Input
Amino acid sequence: MFKERKIRKLSERTPKPRSLWRDAWRRLIRNKAAIVGGFIIISLIIIAVGATWIAPYTYTEGRIQDNYLHPNSEHLMGCDFMGRDIMSRIIYGARISLSAAFVGALTSFIIGVVYGLTSGFFGGKVDNVMMRFVDIMFGFPTLILIILLMVYFKSTFSVIEPGTFRGVMSAIDRSMGGMFFIFIGIGITSWLGMARLVRGMVLSVREKEYVEAARAVGAPKTRLLFRHVFPNVLGPAIVAQALQIPGFILYEAFLSFIGLGVNPPTPSWGMMLSEGYVGMRSHFHLVLWPAVAISITLFAFNFLGDGVRDAFDPKQTR
Amino acid sequence: MKKIWVLGLIFTLVIGVLAVGQVKTLYWNLNTEPPSLDPNISTDTTSIQVEQALFLGLTDFDDATMAVVPELATHWENSEDGLTWTFYMRDDVVWTDGTPVTAQQVVYSVKRTLDPATGSSYAFVLWIIEGAQAYNNDEGGTADGVAVKALDDYTVEFTLIQPAGYFPSIAGMWVCRPLPQTVIEEYGDAWTNAENIVTNGAYELGEWVHEDHMILYKSATYYDVAKVNIDQIYCYMIEEASTAMTMYEAGNLDSTSPPLEDMDRVKADPVLSAELTIAPDLCTYYYGFNNEKPPFDNPLVRKAFASAIDRQNLIDYVLKGEQKPAQTFVCPGIFGHVDGVAEGIGYPYNPEAAKQFLADAGYPNGEGFPEVTLMHNTSEGHSKIAQFIGQSFMDTLNVKVNIVNQEWKVYLATCREDCPQIYRMGWCADYPDANNWVNEVFNSKSGSNYANYNSPDFDALIEQAARESDPAVRLDLYRQAETLMCDTDAGIAPIYFYTIVNLTKPYVVRTFAPLGGEHWEQWDILPH
Amino acid sequence: MFEFVVRRILWVIPIILVVSSITFLLMHSIPGGPFDAEKALPQAIIDNLNAKYHLDDPLWKQYVDYMWGFMRFDLGPSIAYRSRTVNDILAQQWPVTGLLGLASFGIAVFFGIPLGVISAIKQNSLIDYGSMWISMLGLSIPNMAMGPLLIWIFALKLKWFPVATWGTPIHIVLPAITLGTAYMAMFARMTRASMLQVVREEYIQTARAKGVREIWVMLKHTLRNALIPVTTIAGPAFAGMMTGSMIVERIFAIPGIGKYYVTSVGNRDYPVIMATTLVFALAVVFMNMLVDISYGILDPRIRYN
Output
């Protein structure tokens, strides 16, 4: 009887399993810069989703006679080389940059987490081989790989052959304005760090007592994996991924700049930057607005990412 | 007193040295590292420009009239039947190593260009020489079978397969300029390096730092050295057009092509607009149709699209270089040119007619018309043009056009193997005759005929024109050919004729060479 | 330490093998070959050229031949530039990129770390917020916008620096700033965060209690330990700078290997692509090794482990 009471009291005093998240949230809210960043990102998401209602024009309409118009009352940010309204294109462009950020992050997250979980969980020889591969791939300069991949994708998958694999993939890519393979390219080249991180955490969590206890009680391996290992890995993994997002946005801008990015007339900010770049001295507004848009987005993601990382940091005493 | 004397002397000496030592330098931009300075294999304008200064040809072009003028050859004559051409060379031209330039070196160069092992992309212009094509195609021909020979040290004789009045212009092209045989045999592919190269032109190669710059010095051994004013040419290799423009404005470059985005500012600026020159260039920009791919196998569809291109707005708002709208293929200035706009050949912009053609083809108001692909090679400029014209197609004809771009090499491979429905191409003159255009591009047997334009009548016309000697007859034949290709069959849709848009500093006294490379040896730099 | 270095060097071999095979396969899967030209070559000539460069050998044989040459430091001819060998190209252009990378790295480290230290010392002051926001600016403005902006202001208007090209030390300044500011920001933020963390450790309080002067506390004790996590980003930062040079070299017309890489992919100049990728990979590996060694020097706990 004694024991039962003790056990019950113990369970009452054991902290709830999600307090880490609540602590983190509390810390995050107190970080002013992160709040500003988060606010900006939420605004961007709203703008991206509501683009059709917010934008004064569509991103393809324009009179060629209006081209290069400086900002005026009808076109608050001026017009681009085809007479299209820049503000509308920036608004629609939010979709592209945010997709690159989120879908790219999601792709790399999924690949990295699955890889790391598998490797860490199985351990032994499997882990060894899998991690050696990661170590080796770390030596591959990312940008070089992404350039080669994008050239390959762009040249192989730009056909119109309904029915074949190539044709279907090309159609998907075309319907997304050229974004599909950029996502894949980003995902393929960015999962390494995540895999290593997740695998390291899996290894350390595996040795923790509560996992041993669960195993002793006879819990099946899958339950171990999903109930105990995974939730503890999730937090830092998300943080690590969030910190990579500014890099993805820059990748997309860089690829569009060297001609390996989206297909026109898709209004990605990187594309607008590269289209306006040559005429920068004559028509500064062509470059100013996309550059500001990219910078603000990167600002916001950097601050939010920092805030999330600080929030999850167990060593923080504040 | 003495001090002032000495100071005065030193002052005068310094001024004297500065004046005498005033080296006239031209600062030029080559846009990119020249892939090679070997005239036999060069295809790009950068290499050809430098070779123009380094290597002399039998003939050259007069910049103003585009007439063929003597260079190494003082005069030439052809036989009665027009098949044999004999060129008589000067005997006072030497290489930078002192050896004379001889006819045997011309023969050597021609055969080297045609040698399949050399891999020259321009060998086809020499196929008019008897035995050349068989040798070049490795179809059993031999070097000895090529009908070019040196009658003596300073006389070269060519035998052609058919009469060609334009042959003297081909004889001056970079692919048959005499080359230093001993140097090439000694150094192989490395013979063009600065330490090995031997040249005979107005300038010699002084320094070549790859990807960075090249310096050419006036050649002391040039036969006409007294006439050359500019002592050295410093060639930058700046790829980025806007960086080049900035360098020009900062005073580091003496000549540049302003990017079209800057054209408005240039024209509005009092200083820059005075330095601007716009002159006709010898190139045509066109959109081709794959004549074998539906729906473009239907001439009415092709005519519809050809009529939906708003050329004037494209030129005024997108290109901004005062280009000329084109309705025929061969550009003005080339023998065989037909003014389509003036004579009503081809399809001007006419939205009503375009819609009518499409309806006649079975797609009233674009109903049922499949999605089509418009492809171009990756470039900002082509992308802008494609977006404009693609939009024009969509608005006029109510069809869906997908704009796809591919990187240059992939694009060429695609055009060859599975040409897209609408593709973008340009063509620039190699020599001033329409044969270089309609025959070498759109002859149904030509490897560059991506449009798969296959008309036996057309082939017959242009092949006859190639054989014909009477210019009036030839002109008429070319008119018929252009009418057939650009009007009756609408095989392609020519868009515009290029212009040279150039900014040059006012202290540079210069000419503009429409063909080949600039003649730097005729320029001068005033004190500034 | 010695066996650590040796082990790292041995790692180079599998890295080279994997990187080279992936690059090789990708390269040859991309459609279009080096001899596709606008004025189409007759098939006979294409066949000849393919034979000359051994492009008609089976793929595995081409790979083996290439790797064999690589090990003897013979990187092959350049297909697009016939008078140059890849060895020549790398020898001339690699040092340029290396110098640019080093200069940018220098800017990042020698401006970034002190900025972070100052921000940490004067935490939450105007200086702190100001420098963090300025460094954020550097991090957020992409290279392709910053380069021309710097040229416009400092070269064209103020005429303090040359517009472009390479040659004298003054030519290095603007490109290095363009390339280095993003990493300067990273180093600044990292140093600041790390210092703030270390400053709360007990051994710092001990030092203060011992009566050590504040400035020494900061510089000698705090900074030394704060630099440990900072070195972890030095490796990727250097790699990033090498590859970021592609755009900067193009904008400033610098004859480096980054600008050349994009051209060689466009030209399908296979030997150059392979060589450039491998050299980049080796540089990254080498840099990572240096980082790990300095990690060991800075953190005695690792050394004695």
Q: What stands out?
A: The longest helix of chain B spans residues 2-20. The two ends of chain B are 35 Å apart (CA to CA).
